[in-house]
Each structure stands twice: as structure tokens, then as C-alpha cells.
Amino acid sequence: MIRYQLLATDGAARRGRLHTARGTVETPVFMPVGTAACVKTLEPRDLSALGARIVLANTYHLFLRPGHELVERLGGLHRFMAWDGLTLTDSGGFQVFSLGARAERTGASAGSGAPRPGPGLVTITEEGVTFRSHLDGSRRFLSPEIATQVQLALGADVIMAFDECPPALADRAYHERSLARTQRWLERCRAAWVAGSRRRADAGLHPSSLFGIAQGGLHGDLRARAIEEAAALDLPGYALGGYAVGESPEEMWAGVARDAPQMPSTKPRYLMGVGTPEDLLAGIAAGVDMFDCVLPTRTARNGLLFTSRGRLPIKNARFTDDQRPLDEACACPTCRTYTRAYLRHLFRAQEITALRANTIHNLHYFLNLMAEARTAIEAGRLDAFRRERLAAWKAGLDGDGASTGA
Fold first, then answer.
1. Residues 6+ apart with CB under 8 A from 368
2. pLDDT digit string (tens) for 207-242?
3. I want to staple 75 with a disulfide (CB 3.0 to 4.6 A). Which of 79, 94, 119, 124 is the partner?
4. What angle do CA 167, 171, 176 make, to 5 degrees?
5. Tell me, what's the pLDDT at 406?
């Protein structure tokens, strides 16, 4: 079972440590996303060299391919992907939202913003969610019990409760209905987790820790209710879901600053699917311990790189003859080895090496930012550290015209 140890505070910010049967993780921590049991372009040894200690995989995708039964037969997710660190599996709830958001809006009031899944794509009921596989169109079903059982079969160290994730700007009535259902689903997830954990213990397998997810959009009273009801179940950890799904960054930062301190202080706090370096620092300042996002790896494959002085679009022509490293303040293998000119050439030539080199750099940048934040909290200067970083990003990249926007 996961255990949170608080080591230091600075305002609401927390410096801590996660203890598990498989090892420890220093917090605040950023978790690279390996949706299909792989962080794209990288090997497990790359992740270890970068300092990653926990990665995220996705239940929805592994449920469809290759199937959790196969992964379980082959020794579980860690052996399957040759990863000796910790793993966290998303429940698939966000995929339900993303499918629903693309569905035909039927029966929705004008301007409500609430998705009403159209026929054949996704159907949300009290029992669970019926959807069509994006791989072959087959009809599939996930319930709180199935999602929990799938994650237990995968053998993740942290598993997430099955929830519905509506758009932040959906109307309040939709959020209230969705939140009530998510809370009922959480109780069912807990029952399935308790039963499954007993079976795993009897088989001598590593335990999995269930995290509850608090939804509620931008409505502070709904968030508070969700946190209170989830905390009453005394789970190993808790997460804020439903942020970065349509609201402005400022709205998200304000919501997280309001919500995170209300979460149990003795348990790890996780902000799901967030985000940019600015988002991470805002979340850390609010007292969040764990983060994940596809942003650093996805933008790396699209040629957008994060540096100490802002974002750098490596494909731009101004880097054609630039012999400087990508970021002179960075000690990652990419910056120690290659020039901007060469990285631009690789990217424009569509060489696989470009995607790998870019991904190594971006993940190093995110992981190093978290390490620096941990040090700043210990020194009682997180606010100053945050101001310094924001000022440097705003100033831009040595006149290269790099933007602070993603």
C-alpha cells in the first residue's frame, strides 16, 4: 500500500515522499505518460537515466490492445514493459469524456456545453459505459468493477477510480448529475479493489493502491462535496480530475488553489492530465504532489521544445546555422551532444532520432523542473523560484522569438 510522508512545507506547497512495496518516489513528481505501456520513442533505461521513477499507462488502451488478460499472463505490466519503477494506470474515464465530446450532441440545451453522446459511439448509464473501440469499431463495455479488475490484472502500483469527466464549462445541472454518479461509482470501485487486493495478497503479488477522483468542474461547492465524500472512504490517495478540459489556465489555477488544500493532508494529492510548466508550478504552490501530462512528449514529436528561456520551435528557419545547444542551461544528453542546427535538420528530414532526442530533452526539462521545485520548497523559497521561472519564460529565448505559449 502506498504511504505518503510529508518532509517539508512552504505555504501550501508540500515536499514529500511516496513509499510503496516497489520503492520510493520523491514529490512533487511528474509522471511521463506511456499510454500503451511505452513512453513513445524511449526505452525503460532512458526513463531511469532521466530520473523518472513512476510512469503512467492507460487502462482504456491496454484493455483494447493487447488485453489485460495477456499482460497478466505475461507477469503483469512491470515485467511486460521491462520497467522496474512504479506504474500508475488511468481508469479510462477521460477516454469516455473524449469520446463523448466528439459524439453528436443530442438533447442538449442550447449553449449548455454538456455532451450528450450520440447513438453508436458512447452511452453512459448507471451500470457503466458502452462504447465503440477506436481500433475496430467493436462494442465494448467498462464499469467501475471491470475498470478496477483490469487495472488489478495489469498490476499497477496506483490504480484510479472509474469516473466521468465532463467538460469544465458544462452547465451546473450536468456537473451535479455526473458528480453524483461518479461518487456512486467510486464506492463500487472501492469494493472491487478490496476484493481484488485480497486475491493479490493471497497470490503473493505486489499491492495496488486505489485513488479516488474528485470532479465538479469550476463549481467550488461541488468540488468540496466530492472531496469530502471521497475522503470519507479513506482511500490511499486522491486526485483532482476534470481540469484542463476547456477552461482557461487562470480558471484552472484558481480552482486548484482552492481545491487542493481541502484534500486529505496525510494522503498523496494528484492533479490529472496537467500540464504546462506554468501549470505545474501553480499546482505545486497549491499543494499538489503528483502530475502527469502528454504535453512534453507530444510536443517533442511535433518539434516544440521547452527551455529555460521559453518554448523553442526547432523547425524554424532561424536555427538553420545555429551552433548553440538547444538550451545552454540544460545538462540532458540532447543538449550535451547536438546543436540546434542539427536538431532542426533531423526534424525536417523526419529522422526518428529527432523525435527521440526531442523527447529526451523535454522530459529531462520537466523532471528537472520538479527536482528544482522540491529543493525550493525545502529552502522555503518556492514563491521566489516560481517568479524567477515565469520571468525567464516570459523574457523569451535570447531574442530567438520563442513564445511562452504552447
1. 51, 330
2. 999 999 999 999 999 999 999 999 999 999 999 999
3. 79
4. 90
5. 37
383 included as an active-site residue: no
Where does 3-293 sit in CATH, by number? Answer: 3.20.20.105
Structure-block grid coordinates of residue 346: 533531423
Burial of 255 (0-12, 13-18, 19+ CB in 10 A): buried
Is 90 among the catalytic positions?
Answer: yes
List the chain domain ranges.
3-293, 299-395
Place of cell 454518479: 181
In Å, the largest CA–CA distance within the chain is: 62
Q: Which residue has the cell 453528436?
A: 104
Q: Which of 157, 259, 289, 292 is catalytic?
A: 292
Answer left, alpha or beta for residue 179, where phi above 0 means left and psi between -120 and 50 means alpha.
Answer: alpha
Residue of 90, 157, 259, 289 marked catalytic: 90
Nearest to 381 by CA among 369, 373, 371: 373
Model confidence at 137, in pLDDT bands (50, 70, 90)?
confident
